[in-house]
Write a structure and sequence with these properties.
Blueprint (H helix, E strand, L loop, with lengths): L1 H29 L8 H8 L1 H19 L4 H25 L7
Helix pairs in contact: 1-4, 3-4
């Protein structure tokens, strides 16, 4: 049982990473990766995925302190869920029109 609990977070994180990287690669190859005209909006767009990972790690650490789940498992699952949430935020914000995008 301990072996399964050690492998499952790695498999989930790997699946999320493969999905996000594959989706971004497909968008890049098609030439419709999210771009904003203003520099501030582009910086915000580019920082959604790393900030999602940091937020997910933070939530994982907090959950690991209060529940009897391995800290390593909660941090890796938190980071992968944050990675996925950051990707979805990237997708949503890249489709929105901002001031100056015309």
């Amino acid at each position: 049982m301990g072996f399964v609990m050690a492998i499952v977070p790695v498999l989930i994180a790997g699946g999320v990473a493969v999905f996000v990287i594959g989706s971004l690669k497909h968008k890049y190859n098609q030439g419709n990766l999210g771009r904003k005209k203003s520099k501030g909006a582009q910086v915000l767009l580019d920082s959604f995925i790393p900030m999602g990972m940091l937020l997910g790690c933070t939530v994982g650490i907090i959950l690991g302190m209060f529940f009897s789940i391995s800290l390593l498992s909660t941090v890796s699952l938190g980071a992968s869920i944050g990675y996925l949430a950051g990707y979805f935020a990237y997708e949503i914000y890249s489709k929105e029109k901002t001031v100056g995008d015309g």
